[in-house]
């Protein structure tokens, strides 16, 4: 016999099952107690409030609410599948970017994901069976009880430190993690501790394991003094593709040839956060850490940032940046003025032709940058060109005429195969650009810096088949080191003799190393250092690794995340090691470095 409360119980039971499925998929967490008393009450409270507000349309209200929650869970699953971390409310500000990465989203969807919407169908069936529902007086008491539990768990969560957002959400609830981040974001007191961290250059190097040396005493200082600077940031280029061949063909033949007369840093880790490519631009042009969970460019307050272009301007350089996309993408209409570029070229100026992926091809981009050079050389004493390549972007699918590799049959049509083709294409454009500089007589007057922005091979698009192909290609399983390292090449006629440096570096080290070569001192602190000078390094990691992780010259520590426990690996072999006293010291030092990085960043962002 159906009671008055039964339909309401069914509505809340469906929500409970949805929340439980979400917890299992995202956190591999199956504790019924944790779901019932931490995660579920917030969602149930919101549902109860909605039903009380629209009590004459119970089924419609329940249906709409469940669809909205399903949409949130669906989006979180796709996001975490690609980035290996959960999204925050910060990421809602990135919804305008979704059109640019729509193809990538399609690669992430599993048909089972749509089961999150199954309850909508069940609600329709129940609504037809039970019809209009009477008012349930006890609902307001249930809402009050749920509110009390939600307030208690949220207040408790506020008192906990957020070191890694995924682990925090697993322990304190996804909804609570968003509320706590909003609270911290709006509450200035929550950020005050970051401004108290101040480190001298000597103290910063000591945390990394080095003895500080003033930059003008570095052996490499001024090696490229007076030269033009060309900074080329390559989309999705990972270090494991360099000096590698497949089917008798080099993946990066032009870069390999250039490396023979360059300084090649083969152990440089990406340090990007939610801002991905734009974070790499930020670090390459400021020497500062990125925010992490929030894209740095989204929070810039418009204040002038002490940057590479501004420092070089004092030395007679004119600066230009090139990116064949809409200038509003990743808020570059705010980023580029903040960095002080004299000239900005985006899809508005770069010819809209040879479209591939998300805009004009890299060939069009590079040709345009080269065409601008004669005028700039007449205008400025020296030139700094910042070129952001984009064609090798996920999903890496290129027209046949842009594919330069003849891949083995098993690679055809695979994610790894597409990736290798896109990197080979990018390498071709780099080679043409360098040759054109030589033809114009500029190569011997230039410093060329080439680096990858972030990994391309990661997340859900990497199938089991792809993992086997990578193992075959590399000769061993694909590791965290291969995933997170990007090439850094510094070239220029007569500057280097083809030396490879295996010392640890990060993207924050690009600008300090470049300025040292040019013989230019930067007036404000940077988080990075000159890679030619220092043997040891310590990188505080977050976002693509759980908060609290670090990469150090001898150790790589991955802090506990949403699903996996913490682990320590040897940097050379990538084999697991037991934590030791050095690990604990590096964790503390990495957190000090991160706090200092946030303190240096704070004047330029709005919170």
Describe the structure in your own words.
- Strands 1, 4, 5, 6, 9, 10, 11, 12 and 13 form a nine-stranded mixed sheet that branches. This protein has a five-stranded antiparallel sheet with strand order 14-15-16-17-18, with helices on one face.
- The protein has 607 residues and is α/β, with parallel strands linked by helices.
- Helix 11 packs across helix 17 (415-439).
- Residues 189-195 have low confidence and may be disordered.
- It is globular, with a radius of gyration of 26 Å.
- Helix content is 44%, strand content 13%.
- The chain has two domains: 6-186, no CATH class; 201-604, Alkaline Phosphatase, subunit A, CATH 3.40.720.10.
- The protein is built from 21 helices and 18 strands.
- It has helices at residues 6-27, 32-53, 58-83, 102-108, 118-130, 138-158, 165-172, 174-186, 192-195, 201-208, 253-259, 276-286, 296-299, 308-313, 332-339, 362-379, 415-439, 464-474, 480-484, 510-518, 581-601; strands at residues 228-234, 245-246, 249-250, 262-269, 317-323, 343-345, 355-356, 359-360, 382-388, 446-452, 485-491, 499-501, 505-506, 538-541, 549-552, 555-558, 567-570, 576-577.
Give a quick set of tags describing it.
5-stranded antiparallel β-sheet; alpha/beta; 2 domains; 9-stranded mixed β-sheet; Alkaline Phosphatase, subunit A; globular; 21 helices; 607 residues; 44% helix
